[in-house]
Amino acid sequence: MSASPDPVLDGWVHSVFTAAGCTHPVYRKGSGPVVIVVHEIPGITPAVTTFAEEVVAAGFTVAMPLLVGEAGRSPSPGYLLSSVARVCVSKEFSNWAVGNTSPVIAWLRALARSLHGEVGGVGVGAIGMCFSGGFALGMMVDDLMVAPVLSQPSLPFAVGHPSRKGDVGLSPDDRLVVAERAAAGCQVLGLRFTGDSLVGTRFDSLRQLLGDAFIAVEFESPHPKAHSVLTEHRQQEGVDRVLQFLRERLLT
To answer: Residue of 61, 114, 222, 249 with fewest CB within 10 Å of its CB?
Structure first.
């Protein structure tokens, strides 16, 4: 492990984690129970890091894997397009298929197990955003995932076949396990702008799958392109609800 050379990630420790046939950089900071913050497209932007720093300050060990893009780079139209293109061609993400769990979730589950084995605690939390928004749901297959947060979940991409708009990105077997865990009391926090077409009808599907265990935090869209609830189009109430949820599930 080494200190990050990027000034935006000053104080974050950089390492590389390999599991399930995947290798990705991981940036880590803080102490306390583990929370995995999975960035949105285009990558670990300054806004993502700002949010992650708040999770650190709330009393958690935060791990930020870099799945695509560059650590610390600010968004731009060209950068966004290049990251979307990389996500679309990568076999790690189930971008179009319905009823599939993205292969990268096996890697995230292994990362969570490794960190929890080191840090301990009642369990771990995970926060996904945009293309990674549903990843914490797939991580619920493991009992140690006790604080899953889904911010603007957008995979599979809600274009083309209507079924994609409501698909929650889980295989049939994983759907069954997740539904059982929700019925047993594992709550799931979801955040979105109501006019966000990238989310499609997934919140309806999540309510059907999770029942009363699904906590939906929804905001009226301030403009047609509003998408990133916790970062670029930040809603302070949403950030506060996430931190409260993590404290309730991991610190009490």
So the answer is: 222
Q: Return left, alpha or beta for 121; rule: phi > 0 is left, psi -120 to 50 is alpha, else beta.
A: left
The alpha carbon torsion through 224, 154, 140, 70 (nearest 10 deg) reads -100
Give the length of the chain: 252
> What are the φ/ψ torsions at residue 129 (nearest 5 degrees)?
-140, 135
Q: Which tokens sit at 218?
A: 């929804």
- What distance, in Å, lies between the first and last C-alpha atoms of the chain? 31
Angle at which helices 236-250 and 46-57 cross, to 10°: 40
CATH of domain 2-250: 3.40.50.1820
C-alpha 248 chain-centroid distance: 18
How does pLDDT run across 99-115, given as a tens digit for each residue?
889 999 999 999 999 99
Q: Residue 105's closest CA among 134, 135, 132, 141?
A: 135
Extents of the domains making up the chain? 2-250
- pLDDT tens readout for residues 196-220: 999 999 999 999 999 999 999 999 9
Token reading at 120: 């301990």
Residue 240 reports pLDDT greater than 70 = yes
Reported as a pLDDT band with limits 50, 70 and 90, residue 93 is: confident
pTM for this entry: 0.94
Task: List, in order, residues 6 or more apart from 201 with CB less than 8 Å away.
Answer: 165, 166
